[in-house]
Amino acid sequence: MTPTRIILLGAHHPHFYVRVGILQARTDIEIIGFWEQDVVLAAKIEKRLRIPRFPSEHELVSTVFDIAFVHPLDHDNPRLALLAASNGAKGLLLEKPGATHPEHLFKLVEQLKQWPDLVVEWGWEMHYAETMDFVRNLVRRNALGQITTSRWHGGTPSGGAMEIWQRQKNTLGGFLYMDASHTLEVIVDVFGLPQSVSASIRKLPKGEKHPIVSCWYDMHQEELDPATTEFAVGDLPYEDIGSVILEYETHNVVADFTAWEPTDWCADWGIDIYGTNGAFHGVLNAPRGEVVLRSSKAGYARGVTKMSTEKPQGASNQVGYYTRQIELFLQRVNSRAMTECADADNQVKLMKVLDAIYKSAKERRFIDVL
């Protein structure tokens, strides 16, 4: 079987390393090479991953390839996506959120329609979390009865919003836009577009300094940017917290976010959904969840049903979600399989919600989602 040929455009996001590791472990993949604008970072990647390095993005897309994985800083996502598409890409996997402003993303999606057979995916790996499979099944099969309200939480560990990709200049926002939107993506996936949103997005009064968590420092310890690893609440260039009410026709969703979680990535990304027949309580990763029903429904028994997990309870399955995303993405590209995915339709809906959230916070009123 001819291997699927992949090029790597940009390498500024930490998800680049996870995905490359997964691709390198597959026997049906040939990585043609990578390009990264930052020459210091590019030299480190070449030495660390031993992947051919191309001197320019144009030389890389001039090779024979099938799929482009696009992992630059957000401002360059649209340009590189269009460059790959116009040079024959069959599939694009773009790191999230995919653009520095929603209008740039909307424009990109319209431009990509020039290639109707192009398969496009955005890098929301938590879309593929086990907990989300469980939640989708509960909601779509109406096991909880009429849903009246739900509560979702997301964020970053202490000061994680100081990472380079979450504090870029001239973006719509900080960690809520760049990372906490993982939570908004799965909300929109489960419930669709809300009718309106009301939001508070705040920088908090400055407090004491705390050690910050950063994937960037872990990967590139000899090149710290900024030069210190301690910051205080209020030091972030953008928001410290966000609170959002999403109004649907039949229920409300309440979501809250902090850039200062005292736990590790995703450990407190909680979900609570309440319906007339039952409730669900769970966490995205390490995956756990249980549903409590008043009456048996949709294959779920009365009382408490705990969600089964691929790994022992309490063990992270984060790499498993990246792996599943890549596997299903390759199926969509190579066999045109229709699978559950974080595609352009979901991405446009998410960006509409993010646009309304920041507008609501600025104008201090409910904003209709159009």
From TrEMBL:
One Pfam family it belongs to: GFO_IDH_MocA_C
InterPro entries linked: Gfo/Idh/MocA-like_OxRdtase_C, Gfo/Idh/MocA_Oxidoreductases, NAD(P)-bd_dom_sf
Gene3D superfamilies the UniProt entry points to: Dihydrodipicolinate Reductase, domain 2 (3.30.360.10), NAD(P)-binding Rossmann-like Domain (3.40.50.720)
Annotated Gfo/Idh/MocA-like oxidoreductase C-terminal domain residues: 137-367
Coiled coil: none
Membrane spanning residue stretches: none
Record-linked PANTHER family: BILIVERDIN REDUCTASE A
Name of this chain's protein: Gfo/Idh/MocA-like oxidoreductase C-terminal domain-containing protein
